[in-house]
Structures are given as structure tokens and as C-alpha cells.
């Protein structure tokens, strides 16, 4: 059964750093991958996406310059390095994978692009 599993969330002070990971089964890789997040009382939002090869990445304006997405296809894992964290980054972070080859930001940012979703990992940034 295909699945993706996030890990690495936790509590960090504002200005700190945290890295979350997403491990997937073989079928999920060679796929467009992304991180979304959902804060309490808010809708789920796109954070960042990466192409199958890792050669293309896209970021929401709110995290650009602070977050970095990467992937290691040899171990079927993607990473989200989060630096200069702010309290407003507090959310459940979800990993997602989909079969489409996205060519633009709109495709990466659309929830409908992704077929497989993880259960989420909590990231809490204290002020």
C-alpha cells in the first residue's frame, strides 16, 4: 500500500530551526512532492513543492528565503529545512505526493495535484 510518513516536528523558539522529513513507499517517488500546512482555525495552505528530479522547487511567499525543500530519491525521502521560524509558522505540516509533472507554481500549489497525503507532523514555534 502506498503511503507517506512525516517525522521531525516539535517545539522550537522563534528564530530557531527545525527539519522535518517525509519517507514514502517506492511508488510515491519519481513524483511531484510538496509540503502543506494547516494552522488551527485556518485552511490548509501550500508551503513548498519539488519536482521528481529535485531540479525545480517552488515556495510560498511567506516562507521564501527561510525554508528549503530537498529530496533524496535513493532513500525515498524529502526534507523541509525551516530556519528563522516565526510563531505564525505554527501548524501541522503535511507531506504530499502526486503523479503529475508540474510545470508552474499553480500546479504545485493545488491540493488536487496530490494523491497521497501523510498524517501530518506538528510544528510549534513559541514567541
- Portion of residues in beta strands equals over 45%
General shape? globular
The H-and-E topology, N to C, reads as: EEEEEEEEEHEE
Largest sheet: 7 strands, mixed
- The percent of residues in helical segments reads under 10%
Quote the distance from N terminus to C terminus. 40 Å
Q: Which structural category do the helix and sheet elements fall into?
A: mainly beta
Average of per-residue pLDDT values: 93
Q: How many individual helices?
A: 1
Using only C-alpha atoms, the radius of gyration works out to 13 Å
Q: Give a count of the beta strands, DSSP E runs of length 2 or more.
A: 11
The poorly predicted ranges are: none
Description:
The protein has 127 residues and is mainly β. It contains one helix and eleven strands. Strands 2, 4, 5, 6, 9, 10 and 11 form a seven-stranded mixed beta sheet that branches. The chain has a four-stranded antiparallel beta sheet with strand order 1-3-8-7, with no helix packed on it. The longest helix has 5 residues, at 105-109.
Short note summarizing the structure:
This protein has about 130 residues and is mainly beta. It has one helix at about 105-110, and strands spanning about 5, 10-15, 20-25, 30-40, 45-50, 55-60, 65-70, 75-80, 90-100, 115, 120-125. Helices cover about 5% and strands about 45% of the residues.
Amino acid at each position: 500500500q502506498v503511503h507517506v510518513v512525516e517525522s521531525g516536528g516539535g517545539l522550537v523558539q522563534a528564530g530557531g530551526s527545525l527539519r522535518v522529513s517525509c519517507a514514502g513507499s517506492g511508488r510515491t517517488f519519481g513524483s511531484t512532492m510538496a509540503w502543506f500546512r494547516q494552522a488551527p482555525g485556518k485552511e490548509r495552505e501550500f508551503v513548498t513543492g519539488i519536482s521528481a528530479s529535485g531540479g525545480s522547487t517552488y515556495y510560498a511567499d511567506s516562507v521564501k528565503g527561510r525554508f528549503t525543500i530537498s529530496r533524496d530519491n535513493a532513500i525515498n525521502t524529502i526534507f523541509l529545512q525551516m530556519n528563522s521560524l516565526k510563531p505564525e509558522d505554527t501548524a501541522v505540516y503535511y507531506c504530499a505526493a502526486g503523479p503529475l509533472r508540474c510545470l508552474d507554481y499553480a500546479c504545485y500549489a493545488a491540493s488536487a495535484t496530490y494523491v497521497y497525503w501523510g498524517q501530518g507532523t506538528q510544528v510549534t514555534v513559541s514567541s
